[in-house]
Amino acid sequence: CYFLNLFGNAPPLHQVPPLQYFVAYPHQYKFIVDEPIRCLKESPFLVLMVPVAPHNREARDIIRNTWGKETTVLGQEVSHYFLLGLSKEEDGLEDLQEQESRTHHDILQSDFLDSYNNLTIKTMVMFEWLSTHCPNTTYAMKIDSDMFLNVQNLIDMLLKAPKRLYMTGMMARGAPVLRDHTSKWFLPYSAFPESTYPPYVLGMGYVFSLDLPKKILEASAHVKAVYIEDVYVGLCMKHAGLTPTDPPHGGLFRTTVPSFTNSCYWTSVITTILQNSNQLLNVWGIYQTQAHSGC
Ligand SMILES: *[C@@H]1O[C@H](CO)[C@@H](O)[C@H](O)[C@H]1NC(C)=O
Ligand SMILES: *[C@@H]1O[C@H](CO)[C@@H](O)[C@H](O)[C@H]1NC(C)=O
Questions:
Q1: Which CATH number does 2-248 carry?
Q2: Of ligand 1's atoms, which has the minimum distance to the CA of residue 23?
Q3: Confidence band for 96, pLDDT divided at 50, 70 and 90
Q4: Atom of ligand 2 nearest to the CA of 40
Q5: Which residues of 157-187 are buried (b: 16+ CB within 10 A; e: fewer)?
């Protein structure tokens, strides 16, 4: 098994980091719902990769009707794909997803169990898919389904950005490893002895050039996969000798909606974290109004 390989021989028990903080990656997962040639055929400039739970059809439909609808922006082609794992129960979801996939051609479903603690696996199979399916695409963005995304500002930034070895988003620098057992992102010393993480971009929305997936995957064979997915991408980047880049200026990638937004807020940012995808419907309307009012 991978764990034993990493340490050569099985270490004495007291040195073994608790396994629940790691996930089963690398591993031979396979796509059971796929779009094998769409990205190759269309060769978009940018692909948006959206992790979403299998049952969350509502979030997918809202994205298809908001930022997922913007397919030609500043003369560049953009497409989106939803990333799903397997749902827990045999609940007839498989049939629904096949129908949804036939209608929209934007579903990628891999055969690992879809759960919060398996998000690292989802991100890594995303990199696998991108590195083999989009040979003529310049950038990809991983973006959560509860995010506002201004595709126009994103493309505008990318047209001026490096085309290689590039990753940007909301940067975490010198982030402390959380040692409080009750924290959602707890990691014990035995699993990660250093007190801070290397620089990484927060997982809810980051952009990268499409030469990176292969480099991150190569590094992942040497870096044991922790369950905190954005941290793990940062660890693989570090192993590959790479670091993420700051966005060209502050305020493009925002954590929360400010309590007082100015009248051109939504036309000035790239991303903002929302409460849920219903809020996205509402905010999208405000964004359209701002965009048409000379912002
Ligand atoms: C993660 O996925 C693997 C493969 O499907 C599964 O064996 C494991 O139980 C899942 N872990 C969690 C925490 O859901
Ligand atoms: C790759 O994309 C560019 C522009 O997006 C296009 O001009 C070129 O023909 C494409 N190449 C292939 C092999 O599809």
A1: 3.90.550
A2: 1
A3: confident
A4: 14
A5: bbeebeeebbbbbbbbeebebeeeeeeeeeb
